[in-house]
Amino acid sequence: MSDKRTDKYGAFTDTPLGKILVKNLGLPNPTRLDRWSEGAPLVDGTVLVGGSGRLVESLPGLLDTLGIASTAVKPDEQKLKGLVFDATGLTASADLVALRDFFTPVLRSLAPCARVVVVGTPPEQVTGGERVAQRALEGFTRSLGKEIGKGSTVQLVYVADGAEGALASTLAFLLSPKSAYVSGQVVRIGAHGDTSTRLPTVDAVTPLAGKVALVTGASRGIGEQIARVLHRDGATVVGVDVPQAASELQALMKELDGDWLTLDITGKDAAQRIAHHLKEKHGGVDVVVHNAGITRDKKLANMDDARWESVIAVNLTAPEKITRELLDNGLVHDLGSIIGVASIAGIAGNVGQTNYAASKAGVIGLVDSLADAMTNGITINAVAPGFIITQMTAAVPFATREVGQRLNAMAQGGLPVDVAETIAWYADPRSSLVNGNVVRVCGQMMLGA
After folding, report:
1. Which pLDDT value is given to residue 346?
2. Which of 35, 85, 162, 294 would bridge with 195, disulfide CB 3.0–4.6 Å?
3. Has residue 449 got a pLDDT over 90?
C-alpha cells in the first residue's frame, strides 16, 4: 500500500505550488513509499529474473513458492515491480559487463517503489579474479541504490556455497514493501555458522507462531512497533521496560495478549531476573530484541561521568549481560534469534554523541564477537536505524530535523515499522542462516554509510 506522508515537507511537495518549486529549484522530491499491510501480496507485480550462476535456474521456482510472479523476458508494456540478478557466475572483472547488459535496458521499465536484488558469492569464500568480481558487486549496488529513485531500493545478497536453500525469507523481505526504508545494503547468508542447518517449514503469514519474543524498551516508539509486528507474525511478546513506563507497557501487552516485566535493565540482577521470568513462565525464549536505549548528548569536552556511564550501561553493557545470561543458561531455543538495535551513529559518528556512538558501535561488536560462536541454529544480527520519525525526533529543532530527513537516497525519514519489519525478518525461523549481519534501516544515507 502507498504510505501517508511522514512529514510536512513531503506533504508540501504534493501541492501545486510545491510541485512547481521542486521542479524549478531542484528541491528534494520524496516518493510516497509503499509499506506492507496485512492481507496484501508480498509483491504487487512481476519480477524479472536474469543472470548466470548457481542460483538462476532455481530462482523462478523459489519466487513462485513465495507467491511472487516472475519472468525471464521483459514484458513489452508492463511495468516491473522487481529485478533479481544472479551474479554468482561472474568470475572475472571483464564479466561485470553483464550487470550493464541486464540492468540498463530495463531500469526505465520499473514501477515506483520497485525492488532490485543482486545475488552473489561471499568474496571471502573465493579467490583470484572471482573474488575481485564478487567484491565489485558492492560498489555497483550501493551506487545504483543512489541512482534508482522513485522510492525503489537496491540490495546485494551474498549466498555462501551450500546455503542456497536459505534464500526464501530474505527474498520475501527484500522484494516486498516490508523493506521500504532499507536500501544499499549487503546481506550475507551462510557466512557464519553451519550451512547444513535444516530450516523449518513455517506458516508464511505467522512464521513466529508458538514462539516467545523478548523486547526491551517495548512501551513506546520503535519498541512498541517491534512488539506489534512480532505479535502480528504470531509471537507471544514479553515486553520489558522501566517501572516509570509500567502503565503504557501493561496496556500494550494486554492488547497484544503478551506478558511484561518492569525493571531497569542496568540493575545488578536485571539479567538474572529476566532469565528467571522467561524460564518459569515461558520455558525459554526464541527471539531476543535489545531495543532499549537512551541518549545523553554532549560534546566530549563537556561530557560528565553520568552522561557517559548511563548511555554505555543501557545501550551496551545491559544487552551484553542479558545475552550472556540467556545463552549460558540454555534459554534461547534452537533456531532462536538475538537482535541488537544499533544506530547509524555507531557507523558514521555524530557530533555530540561520542557516548551514544560508542555504545551503538559496541552493539555491532557484540554481533561480530558472537556470530561464529552460535550453535543450534541460533543467530545474532543487528539493525542500524538512521533518521526514524518518533516522538524523540519530533523534539529536534525544525531545521536540524528537516536536514536529517533529506540526507538519504529517499529524501525522507523512516518510520518505526521499518525497523520492526527488518527485525521480524531476522526473527523468522527461515532466516537461520542469516547470521552476523548489520543492516542499516536508513533510506541509504548519503554520507558515512
Report:
1. 94
2. 162
3. no
CA–CA gap between residue 130 and residue 132 (Å, rounded)? 5
Domains of the chain from N-terminus onward: 31-189 (3.40.50.720), 212-441 (3.40.50.720)
Report whether 441 contacts 383 (CB < 8 A): yes
Bridge partners (DSSP) of residue 187 are 157
pTM of the model: 0.94
- Do 357 and 347 touch, CB atoms closer than 8 A? no
φ and ψ at residue 154, rounded to 5 degrees: -135, 130
CA-CA distances (angstroms) from residue 71 to 64, 75, 175, 182? 11, 8, 15, 24
Distance of CA 129 to CAs 56, 99, 191, Å? 21, 16, 20
Q: How far apart are CA 422 and CA 14, in angstroms?
A: 29
Share of the chain above pLDDT 90, in %: 83
| Angstrom distances, CA of residue 271 to CA of 175, 264, 294 | 37, 10, 18
Q: From CA 13, how far away is CA 34, in angstroms rounded? A: 17
pLDDT at residue 359 greater than cutoff 60? yes
Nearest residue to 340 via CA among 309, 361, 325: 361
- Check: CB of residue 435 under 8 Å from CB of residue 374: yes
How are strands ordered across the β-sheet holding 259-262?
259-262, 236-241, 212-216, 285-290, 332-341, 379-385, 438-441
Q: Would you please indicate which residues are annotated as catalytic (active-site) residues?
A: 356
